[in-house]
Every structure is written in C-alpha cells, then in structure tokens.
What does this fold into?
Amino acid sequence: MLTQPFTSNAADNAVRRRPTASILLRRLGPVLCLLICLLLLAACEGPGPSEPAAGSEPVAADTPTPQPEPEPTDTPVPEPEPAPTATAVPQEESEAESVESPVVGRTFVIAPEESEARFIIDEELFGQPKTVVGTTSALSGELTVVAANPSASQIGVIQIDADTFITDHDRRNGAIRRFILQSNRHRYITFNATALTGLPAEVAVGEEVQFKISGDLTVRELTKPVLFDVTLQVLSETEIQGTASTVVALETFELTIPQVPSVANVGEEFIVEFDFVARAQ
It folds into this structure.
C-alpha cells in the first residue's frame, strides 16, 4: 500500500523535470536559426580564392603565369634581314673591284704552229756578206686584250725553247746550241712584259695598231730590260696577229761568237723578232 504512492510521485516528479519537445524547440530555436544562417553563408561564398586587398602583394601561384603578349604599336617593327651567305659579295667590295677593273678583257693564246720567234745577225762567210736567220716555232704565251680600254690589256710570259733554233747550216746550229746560247744548260728564253705604251683609246675588229712593250728578256739566266715595237691587227673577235721586234747587243747578254776561219766580222748587235697568231679561249 505504501509503495504505490511513492512510485507515482517519483514519476510525476520525473515528468515535471523532463522538458517537453515544444519547450526545447522554443529554447533552441534561436540557436538553430543562427547555425543554419552561418552554414548558408559559408556555402554561398564557396572555397574560391578571395580577392587580394588593395595595396597587398599578390600571392605567387604554383604554376608560372603566362606572359601577356605585347600590345601592338602604331609603328610596325621590321623583320630582321637575313645574313648574307658565304658567296655573297658586299656592295662596297663590288664597287671597288669595278673601279680597279672597269672592263673585263679576253684572253688569247699563241698558236705555236702559226707563230715564229727568230734572231737575225750579219756576218761574213768566206769573205762574203751574209745575214744569218735562226727560227723556231717552239714558243708559248698568252695575251689579255681589253678592246674597250686597250691600256688595261696585259701580256703574259712569252717562252721560247732555245734548243730548237735552226739556221741554214747544221754546223752553225750546233755552235749556237753548244757555245752561244748553251741551251743544254739554259733551255728557255723568256720575256716578261711590264708595261704597254702608245695604245689607242679603243680597238675595233679589222684595225691595226702600233705600240710599245717594255719588259725583261732572260737569256742564259741573265735578265735585262728591253723595249719591243709591236704591230697588232685584230682579225676578228676571236683571233689576232702581230709582230714584235727589238735590237739587242751581244755584250748585253754576254754572248760570244766562236772563232771559225770561214766566219768573220760578226755583227755586235742582232735583231729579235716575234711573229704570232693568237686565238681566244
């Protein structure tokens, strides 16, 4: 009988102490509303990067930022000119060369089968006057002719085989080779032109011109200056012919004539001549 009232009172007390759902909702309502607003605000802002504050340094990103392309200007920038190749000739060098060589010449080569070198000397043979002529076609050389400016023409080295001179007598031929020219030791006679003078302003096909050539003549390895008188005729644009001659003293090249009973009064000077035909290359 006594336990029942005690249990009832205890339950009633527990019921009175436990708040009901409505009471909890009224107590926690403002707090829940505040939490919900905070969650909604955070969701709206999202996790993206925030704008940097004014005056603050930007934060460097992990990856490099691409450089902005330069803005076009009013004045276009010219493209660089390509470098000249190894074979290109600078303009200033070309102009300098053209001043030194205003006209290109044409090279003519002596045709030995149509040309001749000779010497002419007087003597007395068995008491009678005689003119001795020694000839050879063993000569070579070339000429560079500038028709529009003949003074710019050039003559290369002219070479003669001294061992091939022949006269009208075999004994004389032998004496010339062994004793006079000594061609067994000094095989070649050479002429190296150094200057051309007296040339006209221009030379045309069919014209004949006369001028002088100075240069060095070498006989038996002894070189002396000589002056040739030249007559040149232009047969065509590809062929020329001419004659050159000079007078040389025997003592100039230390030439001596052997004493022979049948020969006397050999001249102290002799003539050197060239008849040549040359064709263009």
